[in-house]
Amino acid sequence: MWQYRYSKMEGKTLPRYEFSPLGDSGVMVKLGEVIDQQTHEKVILFSEYLQEHPFPGMIESVPGFTTVTVYYDPITLFDPLDDILPYDRAVAILEQMSQQISNTHSTEYRLVEIPVCYGGSFGPDLEVVAKQNGLSVEEVISIHSTTEYLVYMIGFAPGFPYLGGMDERLATPRRSSPRLSIPMGSVGIGGLQTGIYSIESPGGWQIIGRTPLSLFQAGESSPSLLCAGDKVRFRPISEREYDNGEKVY
């Protein structure tokens, strides 16, 4: 279902970035201005470095489109012998770390194959996407399933992947009236992005298919099937194959 590949980032060191507070126990590190491959690689590199070198008091780091948010314990970073705020101490640590990270880095990433049954009751908006873009249903399926996507971040719902790299020929506005309930596993298009509904939830994306895989299992040590930095490719399957598929990963 998935395989590992490698990519290489070239350069010297990461430049200084913008830091801003998030509540009383978080620092948002801004690594770029636009959502693109270069910024994403900086986000993943910074996040991976923090995971490998957590500082005392650090709780977790959360990668986003252009940022990494670092959560910390203010009590651990507080020192009664000086007047440095926990936030300022966290920023000082992160600034120092940013100068230690090499931007020449080989990154292992997963290419995950997601089986999808397109159209019918599983993809009620498939024809809408085709009509919007002057394509046939078969062309939409072919274009959508022959593209390799990048998982920029997990958000909106537990395990929901925001996938970048969709062919602009499939870009379709979100529905004017969101649905109150979209089944788990539904594959949708919203503007220039595609994604997978990891749990049953409301939503306004155009639904073109559904996967039998479960993208989120709360009881697992790693509950999300996909992570930021993964690559995804969709594989068309029939309704019979969908019915025989196990909703696990």
Please state the oligomeric state of the protein chains shown. single chain
Spatial strand arrangement across the major sheet: 6-13-10-11-8-7-14
Q: Please give the count of helices.
A: 6
Q: What is the molecular shape?
A: elongated
Largest sheet: 7 strands, mixed, barrel
Task: Report helical residue fraction.
Answer: 10-25%
- The succession of helices and strands, N to C, reads EEEHEEHHEHHEEEEEEEEH
Structural class category: alpha+beta
Extract low-pLDDT stretches: 1-14
Q: Residue-averaged pLDDT, rounded?
A: 87
Strand residue percentage:
25-35%
End-to-end distance: 9 Å
Rg measurement, Å: 20 Å
Protein name: Kinase inhibitor
Organism: Brevibacillus porteri
GO molecular function: protein kinase inhibitor activity
Pfam families: CT_C_D
Explain this structure.
One of its GO terms (molecular function) is protein kinase inhibitor activity. It comes from Brevibacillus porteri. The chain is α+β, with helices and mostly antiparallel strands and 249 residues long. It is 22% helix and 32% strand. The chain has six helices and 14 strands. A seven-stranded mixed β-barrel has the order 6-13-10-11-8-7-14. The chain has a four-stranded antiparallel sheet with strand order 2-3-5-4.
